Amino acid sequence: MLRMAMIPISWLIALATVVLYIHVVAYILDQGPQQILATKSFWPLVLILPSAYFGKVLGLIFFNLAAYCIPPIRNIFDRECAETGRYNFATATKGLLKILALSGIITIICGLAFINNQQNAQQGGPGYPPQGVGSPD
To answer: What interhelical angle do 71-84 and 44-69 show, nearest 10?
Structure first.
């Protein structure tokens, strides 16, 4: 029951993580967030999906820590851990930390791939003019 109450707020943390990540990538590319998202391709999903998953796991860890700091909620948390076979707070959070690390690495790799794709699209390939320049004729 307690975990179900935390789900909507952890999704808000995930949304905030996506927005912040898009702003960071936009800053790196020296563009606005609207310019990054205004495309006919699916490349913005490379930013949105991994960062949303990363943010969701981050939200779950945050609320586990917040709930553990309040003694009545800590008792409920310990009871839920005993029911699921986890023995204490550390073992309950350990799995989330592993998932957070893995999803963080994937999020960074996807961000670098997006930045690389955006820079290649702006520069043009060998023998092609940069994007926005008229034909060489």
So the answer is: 110
